Amino acid sequence: xxxxxxxxxxxxxxxxxxxxxxxxxxxxxxxxxxxxxxxxxxxxxxxxxxxxxxxxxxxxxxxxxxxxxxxxxxxxxxxxxxxxxxxxxxxxxxxxxxxxxxxxxxxxxxxxxxxxxxxxxxxxxxxxxxxxxxxxxxxxxxxxxxxxxxxxxxxxxxxxxxxxxxxxxxxxxxxxxxxxxxxxxxxxxxxxxxxxxxxxxxxxxxxxxxxxxxxxxxxxxxxxxxxxxxxxxxxxxxxxxxxxxxxxxxxxxxxxxxxxxxxxxxxxxxxxxxxxxxxxxxxxxxxxxxxxxxxxxxxxxxxxxxxxxxxxxxxxxxxxxxxxxxxxxxxxxxxxxxxxxxxxxxxxxxxxxxxxxxxxxxxxxxxxxxxxxxxxxxxxxxxxxxxxxxxxxxxxx
Amino acid sequence: xxxxxxxxxxxxxxxxxxxxxxxxxxxxxxxxxxxxxxxxxxxxxxxxxxxxxxxxxxxxxxxxxxxxxxxxxxxxxxxxxxxxxxxxxxxxxxxxxxxxxxxxxxxxxxxxxxxxxxxxxxxxxxxxxxxxxxxxxxxxxxxxxxxxxxxxxxxxxxxxxxxxxxxxxxxxxxxxxxxxxxxxxxxxxxxxxxxxxxxxxxxxxxxxxxxxxxxxxxxxxxxxxxxxxxxxxxxxxxxxxxxxxxxxxxxxxxxxxxxxxxxxxxxxxxxxxxxxxxxxxxxxxxxxxxxxxxxxxxxxxxxxxxxxxxxxxxxxxxxxxxxxxxxxxxxxxxxxxxxxxxxxxxxxxxxxxxxxxxxxxxxxxxxxxxxxxxxxxxxxxxxxxxxxxxxxxxxxx
Lengths: 397, 397
What we know:
The structure is a homodimer. By secondary structure, chain A is α/β, with parallel strands linked by helices. Chain A is 32% helix and 19% strand. Chain A has 13 helices and 13 strands. Chain A has an 8-stranded mixed sheet with strand order 9-8-10-1-11-12-2-13, sandwiched between helices. In chain A, strands 3, 4, 5, 6 and 7 form a 5-stranded antiparallel sheet that branches. In chain A, helix 8 (249-257) links the parallel strand 8 (242-245) and strand 9. In chain A, helix 4 crosses helix 8, helix 9 runs parallel beside helix 11 and helix 10 runs antiparallel to helix 11. Chain A is globular and about 65 Å long. At the A-B interface, helix 3, helix 12 and strand 13 of A face strand 13 and helix 14 of B.
């Protein structure tokens, strides 16, 4: 891909409707996408290639990390990203490839050293910010700089700056109240992992000293240790000047992993499309992330998911007016309301450009199953987008 | 898969209708499965995911070994299993990973040292058993134990116990009468292969001495050398307590390779389903193997193959009454009556669970070609079954 890609004037839009794939609630019924009234997507389908994408592996329900890495064209089995890394990037921290990141939960220790609340009574964001400042001012580690950035409420991120770290570390969160926090343990015997475990344990010890008087937020739990996976950037891989429009930190973090610029999103779905319009001239690739579909699916709310899809549908004419060279409308995984969770099922994919082989007159799982893209790995979507945007040279003589 | 799999209460059934895939006898005609009257499978299809599986590689017709290894989720190109190993496991021999196995055919040597009958006049099983006993009592090798187990008529299995063997050996069977048996030759230069070849040649020499007076069964031909491929078991790979119901030794051997328990099968197709019912509580995975479809296909008997499929169809309601969490109905390869042989064609796959995206109202090659699973590698079926049975954790954050 890196060898074949060329810069052109045309622009690519990857519209990710999170958890788009669905299932009928009952045999014989429609899926969320099929039930939604989507005149604009249906009209687009008559001019588009359709297919069902398979994220990660057969039967495997992906988290958002591997789901998006696949959409961005990376092998999600090869590049595994710790949640701490996504959080650090998501809050805008300029994580370097040698840094170690972990998520922090403020929590409550009782008098006997056991966790009595894993979320410190869900302290408000103002309190969380204050505690983060307290830690940044008072917590010093020997020979290693550490930065703590507040995320939201009781959640924050710690980034250890330096060299010779490993993210192969266990969490301290015992996952249940009434238990003592666990010590961080290395997953392997490398000196890097042992050093990093010592460092993390020392961090917890010193945080406990600093927070001693801050009940209910008198300790921290560390989770999701990880290091930057050192992905090739979109610039390197595709020669694309890529930008992301996403309203949640995790998706911003994923976009930053791929070297995308983060655009300030507007309010709600319409606001994100408005941002796209305003930034149209500045980039040649846009990742636009829509969250409410996934949230509705997780809640088991079929109708709310369908309504969110309809809200996206209403933005399609404005998007097409911008004149993208290639557009994909898809999801990072299925989140069927029937299952109230991410699932392994095929995700509808629509690829539009002037060079398509349309097979149906509507967008939905069933038309996609019989489409000209077939059932195919999600990692291939970026290749199709690059091809449809005429950004790939011929391979071979 | 090993990292994501979890134990749950739900049960998985893999119903393998051997050689299920077929072809129309004439253009415009139906396949065996499409021609068969299968009201129960058709009703199930309206509540199931459909697809066509591709065994091994494009255009490649698999033997039963690779066909089944793929269905069990193993890479059939990576794990190649000698026929001797399947025979040894099939007759219930507790083959260890360091043992060497080979198939034996009793045969006839004429006065000039040439093979005059490669099957020793198809001696009856009683005679075969008697000769195996004679060999076991009288054939001694230097420093290595060997066990011979009778299979059927003129066929037996030899297992060499010990260490430092290799299965990379040529057969002694010249494949034609009127030729002398071939010496066993190593396929590579390893000391293991050379040692094993010497051992096998010494075995033939000593067998000839023991059998000298046993015309027409006065020699043995050795074929299909191999060692246990050391597959991860179903317990290791999937945390499944798996059992097999199969009426032929080879399929029992394949199931044992994967660490499955062998259940005593009842008489015929109905008997196998009866065994399933009686053993339902004892296991959480069942491999049920149906042979007559493949045999009819090999005979070129389209109607008999369709009738065998109908016989399976009649058992579906009883199977569904057991309440499997996930069920696959498929084959290990196609055996089109038109070709009278195994073939490379797509094999219909039906996966049923509460979480499906049905696309058709009948089970057949054509509906499967447009199904929501697409055309996909047979190795992925186990992933789908694990997913549908809710036995896989989410992958990644």
